[in-house]
Amino acid sequence: MIERTSKRLLDRRRQPEAEIRDAIFERESFLVTAHARPDGDAIGSLLSLWMILKAMGKRAEMLLYDRVPLIYRTLPAADQIRSAPHIAGNFRPDAVILLECDSVERSRLNGLDGQFLINIDHHTSGRRFADINWIDTGASAVAEMVYRLAISAGVAISLEMATCLYTALLSDTGSFCYEGTDERTFALAKSLVELGARPARIAQDVYFSNPASKMRLLGAALTNLKREGRIAWLWVTHSDMIRLGAAEEDCEGIVNYAIGISGVDVAVFLRELPDHRVRMSLRSKSDVHVAAVAEQFGGGGHKNASGCTLDGPLYSAMDRILDELRRQLRPHAVVSIA
Asked: Residues 80-83: contacts with CB within 8 Å, 24+ apart?
């Protein structure tokens, strides 16, 4: 059954992962990284790809600009991920694999100039910036692409890999709620469970292991909750972050409380940064393409889940994003679903 499921996943199209697989076979050492402020898909896919490389007999290291969020630190080998702004001076990999990055700058790492780059991404805002690019906007998570790469390379999926991949899939589909979740998503989830992933345990680690600081921050954000027709928004200031002892990772998922309101089709969570810029998380239902909105402000992401950063002050940035969302939601506006 697992073999048949794997074949269905691989039969979606001509296997673009073959070029990456061959590039890996031809090289010996790799650095694996992902975007700054990593989410569950970035962490889970990073860990599983690192394990795949090790299973192929390759030397591999993991590096992120930011630390691993608390809720993902129980994942297998999470303590092997190094957090630093640059590659270690004594390690010159044969290739750098970037996950979920639309550019080298998205990783925020220094020292990638002149490296052989492999780009694996599934966002609609993905760009072909590397020596080898695999962008599949039909994949429900980068974890799906990493899984396909493992199958293509003949690597057996271990219990540890399955756990990391399932965590990535669960988090990036919004617990299988986002657009793009389809029969392939559930086929992959089924395979990973058959390989040993424990859905209830993983869900508890992801959704029921939050620090108290996140709950306090959520309370502050909900106090600021506003609604205007089909739009809802909420925010926290930099002063709120300091006062509540909150970390950047505590902001993850807060926007979902606004999009969860009946009748709301678009939601925004705004966080004021120390330099007074404003980071925004956008979510949507139906055909509202928030990635297209985010891209207008230099961001990107998925059709129904995206983000961007605007210059402050906070209320000025808030007005700018709300004006654009109002324009998108006008009764006769043409909403892009490209």
From this structure: 80/50, 81/43, 81/46, 81/47
